[in-house]
Amino acid sequence: MELIDVISSSIAPSILEKLDFRLIRVVVEVLVRHNLIFEQPFFEQVSPSSLQRNISFPHKTYSNHTPNSQSLAMPKIIVIGSLNVDMVTTTSRVPEAGETLQATSFEVGWGGKGANQAVAAAKLGDSSTKVYMYGAVGDDVFGPQLIKGLRSDGVDNDGVKSLEGEKTGTAVILVEEESGENRILFTPGANHKLKVDDDLVPGGEYGDIAVFQLELPLDVVTHHIEKARSSGAVVIFNPAPAIELPESLFSKITHLIINETEAAILSGLPRDSISSTSDLDSISTAFIEKGVSSVIITLGAEGVYYQTSTHVREKISGKRIPAAKAKVVDTTAAGDTFVGGFAVEIARALDVPGKDGLDDQQKVVDKAVAFAIRASGKTVEKAGAQKSIPSRSEVLNQGTETATVERTSSGHSQDE
């Protein structure tokens, strides 16, 4: 007799249907931890009659027969995006046209906005968070090393394709030594060889949280955003490098994370027209009116502004959080760390049953933004992309100060 049959036959149906699913989930996690059951077979054994009521979480509602039912035991974050080789040169300043300058250092590392965000989510999550990467590398010398690097950082890399005859994407990054600011040239390589009809996400398993950027072809990104939203996943979109987007796409986005330049481009305004002094309430409201649930605008040294559909309905202004205290060394992965940290906190909220009220949803975003700022603040204190991303314990063990030291970071400079 299967374990679930034993449980069901031991409890009267009238009582079973009234049990708080949180109790069932705790029992399951204990059993899984002691290798008595595996979570997926267990949930396949659960009969619909024993789970008739929907279980609500902030930003998402789970029902008895959804593709994501196993996430009730373990949140699942899917990242669909780019994987690159980062070739990083540190210099005292950026050379003028026609000028040759001796650089301070050079190194090769693993990056790409998609891979960086996946690694950030894995490092900033805890044992209850699973992160899966979907994308493509070339069949050159770099591809296998990138894939191996993901696994070593705790990311499931089974969804990364190796494309025959293609080169792995590359990013040439110049980092100014004094300011930590970066300038990036991105060659997509295998990233742009992915097509809409590729079976990139087998079975349409988009998990609980699906994270996207714009270093893959736009039609591929929009296709998977639509599929992810249809599957019931929370969609986090970091549209960088920014381009004009189809108006219909915004209604599929749960959380939109952008910097000032990206906000301007998506709003149809000149690139440099939005700053921390702009009317960010009006700008964010325009996105929310198109269907986005929350808009987060990173402002560099000025911190982060964010607005939610909850506050727009209540006619409450958006919130600002000061930038994290940091001595900046390299801002390359700051934005991607912010996105990964935000995704982790949203996933953790999904794993804790709540009232599913508007106030609860607002608190989830408040907490996610605050954690993401602290995480990106730690990232900029080290050189490199993925290797600079901190662990969850490093972030939680640091102070909570937001005063600036030399220069601040909020995830504004992104790996673009």
Automatic annotation (TrEMBL):
It catalyses: D-ribose + ATP = D-ribose 5-phosphate + ADP + H(+). HAMAP family: Ribokinase. Residues 382-416 are annotated as: Disordered. It is found in: Cytoplasm; Nucleus. Homodimer. Activated by a monovalent cation that binds near, but not in, the active site. The most likely occupant of the site in vivo is potassium. Ion binding induces a conformational change that may alter substrate affinity. One of its GO terms (biological process) is D-ribose catabolic process. This is Ribokinase. Keywords: ATP-binding, Carbohydrate metabolism, Cytoplasm, Kinase, Magnesium, Metal-binding, Nucleotide-binding, Nucleus, Potassium, Transferase. Catalyzes the phosphorylation of ribose at O-5 in a reaction requiring ATP and magnesium. The resulting D-ribose-5-phosphate can then be used either for sythesis of nucleotides, histidine, and tryptophan, or as a component of the pentose phosphate pathway. Pathway: Carbohydrate metabolism; D-ribose degradation; D-ribose 5-phosphate from beta-D-ribopyranose: step 2/2. The keyword Kinase applies. InterPro entries: Carboh/pur_kinase_PfkB_CS, PfkB_dom, Ribo/fructo_kinase, Ribokinase, Ribokinase-like. GO terms for molecular function: ATP binding; metal ion binding; ribokinase activity. It comes from Tothia fuscella. Substrate binds at residues 84-86, 112-116, 215, 336. K(+) binds at residues 330, 332, 379, 382, 384, 388. Its EC number is 2.7.1.15. ATP binds at residues 259, 298-303, 335-336.
